[in-house]
Design a protein that fits this description.
The chain has seven helices and five strands, in the order H-E-E-H-H-H-E-E-H-H-E-H. The chain has helices at about 25-45, 85-105, 110-115, 120-130, 145-160, 160-175, 180-185; strands spanning about 50-60, 70-75, 135, 145, 175-180.
Length: about 200
């Protein structure tokens, strides 16, 4: 992609710009990392009963001198999902991307820090709050959970589903965009039906 995506792809759930972070990776390695990030979201969402519509890597400003910009997007339709599972799939993107760095010999503290997706955490906090559940950024609120607790749930699930995440990530890196049904077919997972029976 030579031009930037739709402006909405660069905004968080509140319409604010997502922060720009430098991974210090070359384009191919960073692109695969973003594919792992989105595959983490998609695979965990699907495993928790969430219908995944699409998951994709979005790249632009890719230049001959190595410059690039990357983001990603996973679309889903959730209904009657346990709130903590929803939060865990929000946490899964960053964790899967960091696991990719470790598994492929690319991990450094700076690169791991650049995987942080604060917008994913904030979306989980706001979405759960709208349904009466408390998710604390750095503490355990009364009757709720902390972000670290949710990350622990996601980390365990990623360990169990690493093969599926890896399969989806490499296919996404090669094809740019996958449907949830394509991810299900290649991983052996089930993409739950769209809520309400919509096609």
């Amino acid at each position: 992609m030579a031009t930037a995506p739709e402006p909405s792809a660069l905004l968080d759930h509140n319409g604010q710009p997502k922060p720009w972070l430098d991974t210090s990776l070359d384009y191919e390695a960073a692109r695969l990392g973003m594919a792992f990030h989105e595959a983490g979201h998609a695979v965990l969402a699907m495993s928790y009963g969430v219908h995944v519509t699409t998951s994709e890597v979005i790249a632009w400003n890719v230049t001959d001198d190595g410059g690039y910009s990357l983001t990603g997007k996973t679309g889903f339709q959730a209904a009657n999902v346990w709130p903590w599972h929803f939060a865990a799939q929000c946490a899964a993107g960053t964790l899967a991307e960091v696991q990719y760095l470790m598994a492929y010999g690319l991990w450094t503290p700076q690169r791991a820090a650049a995987c942080a997706a604060v917008h994913d955490r904030e979306q989980a906090i706001d979405t759960l709050a709208a349904h009466g559940y408390l998710l604390g950024r750095d503490h355990v609120p009364a009757g709720g959970k902390s972000w670290d607790m949710v990350r622990g749930m996601a980390r365990q699930k990623i360990g169990l589903l690493w093969r599926e995440i890896r399969t989806a990530a490499h296919a996404m890196n090669e094809n740019t965009k996958l449907t949830g049904d394509q991810i299900a077919a290649m991983t052996g997972l089930t993409n739950p039906p769209m809520p309400g029976g919509a096609a």
